[in-house]
């Protein structure tokens, strides 16, 4: 049976079943479910951390901090299946660019980050941040060293100052023992 054209008694704002009547976007729902499963596993891992003695509890403790981050990730992931509704209101289609394959630079960026973060256990947190701030802009096509070098030095130092000095968070110094503490 063929579809009939909209009748005169249908409202002007009525949507067809194909065009946004669905509440959950299928791809984004799968992504959100994957995030929930991954967060659930990380939540379990964080439950295995040793509790810090109340004598040493100033702010948020190391056994609770990952759960704060995981809760934030879950809150954001809850909105993923409904994002298409908000974009549809602005006249944008969430699936428009999804038919094109992921560009190669995304895979190169992912490989570089995995390599640098993997080396972070050896080189330490501060040098790892420096390497990321140096390598990623170059990978993405920035060639003006007068911007890259100050960023690669200044940003990790700023982050380390805030976290190590002001907040008292320990950064692994690595084998080169590079740290503010």
Based on secondary structure, the structural category is mainly alpha
Would you report the number of β strands?
0
Q: Radius of gyration, Cα only, in angstroms?
A: 23 Å
Detail the poorly predicted runs.
7-20
Mean pLDDT equals 82
Largest sheet: none
Q: Could you tell me how far the N terminus lies from the C terminus, measured between alpha carbons in angstroms? A: 75 Å
Portion in helices:
55-70%
Strand content: under 5%
Q: Give the H and E element order.
A: HHHHHH
Number of domains in the coordinates?
Answer: 2
Principal-axes geometry comes out as globular
**Number of H/I helices:** 6
Quickly describe the structure.
The chain is mainly alpha-helical. Helix content is 56%, strand content 0%.
Secondary-structure topology with pairs:
Elements: H1 26-47, H2 65-79, H3 83-89, H4 104-123, H5 125-139, H6 145-166
Helix pairs in contact: 1-2, 4-5, 5-6
């Amino acid at each position: 049976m063929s579809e009939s054209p909209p009748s005169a008694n249908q409202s002007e704002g009525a949507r067809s079943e194909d065009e946004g009547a669905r509440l959950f976007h299928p791809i984004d729902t799968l992504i959100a479910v994957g995030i929930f499963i991954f967060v659930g596993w990380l939540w379990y891992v964080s439950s295995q951390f040793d509790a810090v003695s109340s004598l040493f509890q100033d702010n948020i403790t190391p056994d609770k901090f990952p759960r704060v981050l995981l809760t934030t990730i879950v809150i954001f992931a809850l909105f993923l299946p409904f994002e298409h509704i908000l974009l549809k209101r602005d006249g944008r289609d969430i699936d428009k660019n999804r038919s094109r394959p992921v560009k190669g630079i995304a895979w190169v960026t992912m490989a570089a980050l995995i390599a640098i973060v993997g080396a972070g256990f050896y080189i330490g947190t501060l040098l790892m941040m420096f390497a990321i701030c140096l390598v990623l802009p170059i990978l993405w096509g920035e060639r003006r060293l007068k911007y890259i070098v100050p960023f690669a030095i200044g940003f990790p130092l700023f982050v380390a100052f805030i976290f190590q000095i002001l907040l008292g968070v320990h950064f692994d110094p690595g084998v080169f023992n590079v740290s503010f503490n």
